[in-house]
Amino acid sequence: MEKLLLPPHKKTKFVLLGSGNTLCNFYNLLVKNDFPKPIIVTHPKKFHKRDQILLKNTKNFIDLFEFAKINNIKIIETEKLNDTKLIKHLLKFGCNAAFSISCRSIIGKEFLKSFENRVFNIHPSMLPMERGAAVISWRIMNNKKYVAGTIHQIDEGIDTGNIILQLKKSLIKQKPTVENYSIETDKLYNKLLLEF
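Below the sequence we write its predicted structure tokens.
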């Protein structure tokens, strides 16, 4: 496990990259712990429709745009996360670290360099196992009854950066549902984010 090198809390302004309830929960956790108010960068609103349809009636759904509106949060929609103008804009707003949570974009070299490699991700597995997307789907198909999470530093590979924190927990239910995996993963993520 790597030691985390960040400026003091009050001087670390995060840009949160991605979407979902975990991102919203992490936003609240940062603000509660005296970090400057983060900026959120997400994919365009039209691409959030699928998640809204699939997740709206689940226990752990939070509409990112409603959350931003209620909490007066600056939210930037983009299809081009690695755009030079966006990076300059984020730096101009004082962002000096980034955290990817359910982000649909590959974070490029220029982005990583601009944030002095203070770019982190939370991933639902015990990396280096189960790298990439759809981890929970594969776990269900392979009848693996556990949830896991890793916070790692992002590098130019896919889920290959230095590992900061990891947790794993067995599921108690004999036949866990997708929602069980999702809810338990979120609980595990919250523990990891508190330790971060």
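Strands lie at 14-18, 39-42, 75-77, 97-101, 119-123, 146-153, 163-170.
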